[in-house]
Amino acid sequence: MTDSLTIDANATRWSRGDRTGLPLLVLLHGYGSDENDLFGLVPSLPSGIAVASVAAPLTPPWPAPGRSWYPIEGDESRHPDAVTDAGRALLRWLDDAAADAPSVALLGFSQGAAVSLQAMRLDAARFGAIVALSGYASPGDLPGDDALRTSRPRVFWGRGTHDDVIPPVLIDHTAQWLPDHSELTGRVYQGLTHSVSEEELRDVHVFVEKWRDDATA
């Protein structure tokens, strides 16, 4: 694995032109999607923030559409090192895109959730909050994991009872790992598949609003 992944800054969708002094929420889409997908959540998010929806750096194998953060097929399927590479690429993108933001939060779906949590593990001080929807914490250890038990970054983890996309072993790992390494707000939505519901969006709104208020206090 390498640090050669690059996020195309020109593909990023921004919710507003003037972002001066505003907390920044970064959206990370799932496998086979792109920067346009989660941008549809902007009307459901609190006001008073800037939102950036980024395009993942990889292209899935044909005929899969869209983009991906890391492979989910073959020998490298969901490999923790590949998730780490994607997290580092995100941190490099943030060096330029979020240089003036008073606080940064991440909201990722599926693959994007895994990358969001991995970026938190790589540089927890960079983020005010993490929203992980229908995703998981990658197995394996990273150098900053022990420090998370003390700093306990704020994480919202939402998933559905009928989500059959994320392997159960990864859900079980995440259910044990997150309470030990974060200030966790966990929600399980009855009947929800690998998707986002209106009920979940309401919970996310409250969580993001709290981050915004703390960032601007």
From TrEMBL:
<feature type="domain" description="Phospholipase/carboxylesterase/thioesterase">
    <location>
        <begin position="23"/>
        <end position="211"/>
    </location>
</feature>
<keyword id="KW-0378">Hydrolase</keyword>
<dbReference type="InterPro" id="IPR050565">
    <property type="entry name" value="LYPA1-2/EST-like"/>
</dbReference>
<dbReference type="Pfam" id="PF02230">
    <property type="entry name" value="Abhydrolase_2"/>
</dbReference>
<dbReference type="InterPro" id="IPR029058">
    <property type="entry name" value="AB_hydrolase_fold"/>
</dbReference>
<dbReference type="GO" id="GO:0016787">
    <property type="term" value="F:hydrolase activity"/>
</dbReference>
<comment type="similarity">
    <text>Belongs to the AB hydrolase superfamily. AB hydrolase 2 family.</text>
</comment>
<protein>
    <submittedName>
        <fullName>Phospholipase/carboxylesterase</fullName>
    </submittedName>
</protein>
<dbReference type="InterPro" id="IPR003140">
    <property type="entry name" value="PLipase/COase/thioEstase"/>
</dbReference>
